[in-house]
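Pipeline run #58 for the internal structure catalog. This entry was flagged by the ingest filter as a single-chain record with no existing model, so it goes straight to prediction. Upstream metadata was stripped on purpose; only the residue string is passed forward. Reviewer on rotation: M.T. Logging verbosity set to normal.
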Amino acid sequence: MSAKIEAVIGRYVSLSIEGRDHRVYFEEAGEGIPLICLHTAGADGRQYRAILNDAEITKHFRVLAFDLPWHGKSSPPAGWQDEVYTLTTDKYVATVMAFAEALELDRPVVMGCSIGGRAVLHLALRHASSFRAAIGLQSALFSESSLGPEMAETEYLHRPDVHGGEASASAVEGLIGPGAPVADRWETLWHYMQGGPGVFAGDLYYYFVDGDMRNGVIAGLDTDTCPLYLLTGEYDFSASPEMTAEVARQVPGAKFQIMSGLGHFPMSENPEQFKTYLKPVLAEIGGMQKAAS
């Protein structure tokens, strides 16, 4: 019996992000319209394995999923031992733009989940002309720690007497939809168990504090230049359907759909069901590209 070798290719790219050198790992598959995929807080690009391996998608899209610096196979920059990792809006946007520029991507589609779902809003707002479309998974204008903006709730994630990876997985387990296949559920949690010390907490600073968009600026997002698609799982209390609906209300032209049975990690917790919602969106984006050419 011959082994099945996937078509996914893993590579590294050297990026300068806010004046610092980074070595960033990414995986890609397919050809056509570039599709950049942004993972959730504390995880990495493996969450998009089902998208990378879907022949129907990769026939028309060049799917690229990279690990943020400090995540997965992307190491922290030199000198990391003397600092505390903290993700900010500017740093996140700069990272995505540096990745797209380094690979010379022609107006890619950007899709992100959770913190990535927030980031696509910032990217479309600041760099609309650089993107063909933005797809927000579990997008919301804000999310709040139950203990408030002082971030006290995340302190237990980075302590010498607590296993940070297992604590992180425990913190997100309730966000997965109840119908998720067992293997996919536990693979999603495994990614969290492998996170670097303090990385999940550093990402949550962006999610809870710095990336808050309740200042009304989102109304300026130009969906004529960068169409916005919002897909949110019904079982998510961190970025609930009601919270995503508020984004759609504030952004003229945004398209919003609730994904039945899915939770906070649709692309990894139940990829087959997620693709039934994603593929029509990708088909529409592809159609827009053909009409313009």
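catalog note: Residues 138 and 232 are 5 Å apart (CA to CA).
catalog note: Confidence is low (pLDDT under 50) at residues 146-152, 288-293.
status: ready for reviewer M.T.
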